[in-house]
Amino acid sequence: MASVRRVTRRLAVATLLGALLVPTGQAAAAQTIGYPTFSGPAIPAPPVGYSTGSTLRAIYDAESGGTDFWVDRLLARPGNDPAGTWLMTRGRGLFMNTHDPAVIGFGGNAAYWDDISGQNAYAITVGTALTEQASGRWQAPSHWKGVYTGGSLRANVTKFITHNNVAVTNLTLTNTGAATTTAALRVTSPYATTASGTELTGARRVKNDLTTIRPRLSGDGFTPSGGALARGVTLAAGQSVTTKVVMGFATDEIPESTTEYDAYRGRTPADAFGAHVRDYNRWWADNIPYIDVPDPAIKKNVYYRWWLMRFNHLDVDIPGQDFQFPVSIEGVTGYNNAIALTQPMHIDDLKYLRDPVYSYGPWLSVGQSSKGGRFVDNPGDPENWSNSYTQYISEAAWRSYQVHGGQPAIVGNLARYAEGDAKGQLATYDTNANGVIEYDWGAMTGNDADAVSFDWRPGNLDRAETAYVWSGARAAQQAYALIGDTAKAGEMAALADRIRTGVVDTLWNPSRRLLEHKHVPTNTHVPWKEINNYYPFSVGLMPNTAQYREALRLFADPAEYPVFPFYTANQRDKAAAAAAGHPGSNNFSTINSTVQFRLYSSVLRNYPNQWMTAEDYKKLLYWNTWAQYVGGNTRWPDANEFWANWNASTRTVDYRSWIHHNILGSSNWTVVEDVAGLRPRTDARVELWPIDIGWSHFAVNNLRHRGVDLSVVWDDPADGVTRYPGVPEGYSVYLDGTRAFTVDRLTRVLYDPATGAVTFPSGSGSVRFSAPFPGLRAPQDVAHTGARLVDVFAKAGVNLSSTAPNLARGAAVSASYTASGTSTAAAVDDLPTNEPLWGTAGSPNAQDWYELDFRQSRSVGEVRLHFRDDRAANRYRAPASYTVQRWDGGAWVAVPSQVKQPAVARGNYNRVTFTPVTTQRLRVVFTHAPGFRTALTEVKAY
């Protein structure tokens, strides 16, 4: 956010006539800020050089025999961290919302998706008061190390959290004295207090009652004693003893959390540490593209941002429609929710992780939990719900599909989500039916008190953020076209055209040659502006003519829109608002630089002009990186929620907000798509269209691109220096480690893998090498078969394992009871969103049934059931049990050999297979959970 959320402001009338007058002449200044200066120690170099295969894999392999890895060294934070004591290591659900290094073990507020109860995970004491020596602290992404001393004891501590939520502490106690001493070790946890053999166990519901964690706590040589674990250790002078404490935060929905706990419990401390750091760093080799750029500060920031994506990622598979899909979390040390506004920014970066589950999960999640309408924040955390009219999830989701591809059924979901959002936004906010959304409150994510236009006059404003509704409609159009639904594609094209006409006709002010929000009550253009006014240029909505390009002139003047700080508000307008009594705030954050990047990325390609240049883009890239570092020191990256009080004379930021290591905004995509130039496409060709910022070299290595590994390498032939051994000078693309083509310069290039032909759509160049690569496919020709992605899409109603038709679609449906506001048809609309649904709330029956009549005999051997779990309304839960029955012509009989996955019904996705039967009618009989009734969001039969 650009300032603290939930800001409430009184919107008053600005009566100054002068506020209506905006100069319309040429911009008088250029972006003169120059470039930042970085400080800090030398940034660690990789242990091996560039590879035309997987460079990160080569880096990992070079060090895999030990426990010291390049990414850990690159992002290590030694000593007393000025950003705070935040613990970098985390699991897919478990992390420390706050971290107290004074506690041996995991002190602070333990969290499972969010703070559980404001208590330690567990604490270890040794019978003697020990004090942590901050100078001995060393933290890497994979683990934390510390030194504690007291009396004649020294404790060397190493701790980490595994992927499947196991918190491990290795403790080496040393007697530094001259006499033998005994240490009374004791481990306590508020979450595990019941003795069970040599363990302590417990159970705790997490925040908002989303799931139950079942902690298990044990230690090497420890036994339960008085609600704690205890062990005595006698140490001779100079003697050391190493032990280990392990706590698993197990849940029913993640069985790996139990098996991983058992595995780490059985390992020696050294083996446990080695297994973890190798697993953690192998993830980088498996998922992250290696990126090399000339400036070490920018290179390190790229990897820091990749780590932020992992640190702010939630993958807990909670059954239902809350956090069942892997999602990107906006600020695990702060608001901690899947905020709709920021999801597309994250998706734009996440799509360049090699596993598509990272970028597909967020848009599946929001699509599944938005009732088939406009996108809203994740319902798992209703306290942090916000308005969502400034998000471009559909646009970003479509780009993620262009990168990773997949079965056409994937696109079918995307198309319907995007259509629902575009229509839903207009239905909610376009109350005057002009194709432009309007609202009157600036206290929304990404603007808060920084958005100046809302203070001009009270009342609704027609808003330029409508551009994102247009890009969503366009995404729906393209997705429908890809799966051959021409009717829907045409409908969405017409909707997009209506929105475009509404934006241009309503918001273009010809007298000032600017896009301006319009005050609806008086039909007057609003002269106070934000960067938001330029969203129509960012998404390509505006016609590319001289009169409209004139609006871009303000970006040549740092008094209007400086490259840095990247503010929300136009600075002249902000001053006018302050003079009129509405100063608001004037913060800046990575969300704002993301908006600027998107604008420059579009304008430099689609709206060329004399006011915005590649040099400005380069400055933005450098200052965005500088802002991530505390004081510009590359030792201490800290992506705060926002920053304030830029001191131009000292070139310092005087305030960094309270949320640390936040993933608000995005920027790694800029290196891939703008600097390296890779453009997502919907056909099998590869397009490069770089923004030349004068770098002599760069490499983006081992992207997963529609089923193959793709690398882009630039080595300027003009300087005669070969920077990447085995790679020729020039601008090259490699596919699966094999060179596809090389051209002589940074320019727009189009490559056809079927023929090897290289063309230059808007420029010139010389082809130095090209060869066909028939293995590269169009997105819709890619088939994803990995178990995890198959499972995730099954939960969204997509069967990636088979192309067999869903027999429930088109079936006649009936039920024993149907609650008001629900319908039997809602459960066979082929999309298991949280609503619409068929429900039985109010049913007097202990059992109810839902029937499918196929209208003719069909062979059926599988049924998929999506149960609603509406924790907020508290009416529906998965049934206590269910049975699939067929009609045998005279009676209902159970189908034979039913195998249910899971064995006990859960919220959302359940699958039952059985010996195939031939029948016209099939039904499912539900025994309701005590105190609840059953609802279905979808039934599928195969």
From TrEMBL:
Q: Where is the F5/8 type C domain?
A: 793-942
Q: Which UniProt keywords apply?
A: Signal
Q: Which domain of life is it from?
A: Bacteria
Q: Where is the signal peptide?
A: 1-29
**InterPro entries assigned to the protein according to its UniProt record, in alphabetical order:** 6-hairpin_glycosidase_sf, 6hp_glycosidase-like_sf, FA58C, Galactose-bd-like_sf, MGH1-like_GH
Q: Protein name, please?
A: Discoidin domain-containing protein
The source organism is Saccharothrix xinjiangensis
